[in-house]
Amino acid sequence: MRAVAAPFTLILTLLLSLTACAQETGKFKAGQHYQVLPQAVPQSDDSKIQVTELFWYGCGHCYHFEPLLNQWKADMPADVALDKIPAIWQPVMEVHARLYYVADAMGVLDKMHQPIFNAINNQREMFANRDGREWNPDMDAIRELFNEHGADGDKAVKLMNSFAINSKVKQGMANQRAYQLSGTPEVVVAGKYRISSSLPGFKGKSNGQQLMLEVADYLIEKERANRG
Question: Domain of 91: which CATH number?
Answer without folding.
Answer: 3.40.30.10
